[in-house]
C-alpha cells in the first residue's frame, strides 16, 4: 500500500503528509513521482516510501495501545463493571444494566465499520443486549505491477515487479464498558498472488519480445513478491565472419640496427639490408577464416553479420603453395604485392652504357655502377642503382633505390595492374547501367506501360530490349572473380541468381537493384585501393629531374634543386642538412622538408591534397603552400612551419618568425 500527496509545490506536499500522518516533516522519507509545469500552475506529487508507512503504522499501534492502557487505568472501575459492552474473542458482547436510564455506547475507530441491526452506524451508537451488533474492517485489495524495460540496442529485456500488500487486523480485547471504543491491531500482511510463468510470458509477448526468453529467470521471479531489473530475455549478437589472413614471413628490407649509436662513419644510403630467400624457405602462410552467424534481438529481428570475402591468394614465379604455406622454389628476392607471392630472380650488371645496352627485365635489377646519358633501365619489380643516374630514364614496377645522384633524369616507381584496371572499368560501367535500369523500371511500373506485370518481368524485358550489353558485362565481371577464386561473394551470387538468364524473374521489387548498386560501390572502392601498388623511391640528391612514385619519395642526402617530384603518399627529406630549393613537389598526404627555398627568395612550390599537411623546419619567403586549388605564399622567412586547411577551408600556416 502506498500513500501519495499532491500540491503545487514540494513544500505543500510535505506539509500535507506531515499533517495527515502526524509525523514531523523532516522525518518523512519520500520520492517525487510527478513534477509537471503547466501554463498557470505547477503540480508536484510525492509517494511516502513503504518502510516509512510501516513505521507510521507501528507508531499508530503504539499510540492506540498506550491510549487503551491509559483509558483502562483512568476507568479501571469500568473494567470491574458487570454491564456494558466488551470485546471478547473478536466478538462484541453487550450486557444491559439493571437501571433503564443507563446508556451503553459503542464507537468504532478509523478503519472499522459498525453495523447495528444490519444498518451502518455513525460515529457513536447506543446499543443494548437486544441489538445485533456486527463490524467489518475496511478492506483494500492488495495490488501488484510488473514492468518490462528493453535496452536501446534491443538485445536485453529486464523485469521489475512491485507488490503492495494490505494489513490484516483483529479487535483489541476489552472488558465491559459503558462507552466502548473498539480498537484494532495489525496481526499480519496479505500479499497479492505471485505472478505465474504464463502471466509473465504474456507480458513479454505484449511487449513484442519473442526471442531469447530466459525460463529460469521467469521461474525465479514467480517465487518472490519484489523483483528489480531481472534479466528475462537476451538476444544473440551477430558473429561477424573472421576473414582469411595472409601472413608475410619476411621483411622486404630491414634497417640495420645500431647505426645511430656507433661513432663510425655511416653511409646512410646503404643502411638497409635486402631480404633474400633460398630454396625451401617458407615466405608466407594463409590462415583460413571462419564463417560467423547472424544474430537476433529480443524482438526476433534478424541481425545480419558482417561477411568477408575469401582471400584470393596468388602464387607467382619462384614459389609454390603446400599445406597453406608458400615455399620458395628458387633463390632470389621474395616479394608480396596485391595478394601475390613471388621470388624474383635478379639481373645484375656493372654499368648501363652503350656497351651493356638498355635493360628491360621482368624481375629485380641491380646496377652496381651508374646509368649513363641516354640510357634506359626498366625493371618489372625492384631496381637498385649503386651510383649516379645521368640524363637517363629508369622505371620500375617496385621500389627504386639510387645510392648516387639523379641528374636531369626521369625516375618512375610503381605500375598499374592492367587486368584489375579493366575489371574496375567494367564495374563503373555496370554501376551506370544499374542506375539507368532501376530508373527505367520505376518509370515503366509507375506509368503501367507494361500493364500489371511484376517487377521481375519488367526488368527482364528491359534487359532484353534496352540494356542488351548487360549480359556480356555480367559474364566479364564473373570471369574476373572466378579467376581470382571468388565464387560465393554477395556480388557474384546476386549476378548469377538475379541478372543472368531467367534470374530477373526472381526479383520481387526493382528496389533490389539499389542494394546491388551498394555492393558495386563497395567492390569499386576495394579495387581502386588495389590498383595502385605503392612503390617507394630512395635517392640521395636530385637536380633538374622528374621523379614519380606510387608510394613515398625519401631524399636521404643533400636534397633537391629545381625538380618536379610526385608521390601519391608522402615526400620526406631525412637528412638534417637537406635543402629543397626550386621546382614543384606534390604529395598525396604530406611533405616534410628541412629547409625550403633560399634567402634570395627562390620560388619553390609545395602541393598536397586538401586533407594533407606540409611541415618545414625552415621555410624562406616566396615559398608557395598549395592545398587542392587553394594556395598561400609565405611572406616572411619562418621556422617550425606547419601548413594545413582549417575547418573553414582556409590555408593556415603555423610558424615562428626567423
UniProtKB/TrEMBL annotation:
Q: Secretion signal: which residues?
A: none
Question: Record's SMART domains?
Answer: Jag_N (SM01245)
Source organism, top-level taxon: Bacteria
Name the UniProt key words of this record, in alphabetical order: Coiled coil, Hydrolase
Enumerate the GO terms in the molecular function aspect: hydrolase activity
Under Pfam families, the record lists: FapA, FapA_N
InterPro entries reported for this sequence: FapA, FapA_b_solenoid, FapA_N, KhpB_N
Q: PANTHER family, per this entry? A: POLYMERASE-RELATED, RNA-BINDING PROTEIN KHPB N-TERMINAL DOMAIN-CONTAINING PROTEIN
From the Swiss-Prot or TrEMBL record, give the protein name. Putative polymerase with PALM domain, HD hydrolase domain and Zn ribbon
**Which organism is the protein's source?**
Clostridium saccharoperbutylacetonicum N1-4(HMT)
Instruction: Please name the taxonomic classification of the source.
Output: Bacteria, Bacillati, Bacillota, Clostridia, Eubacteriales
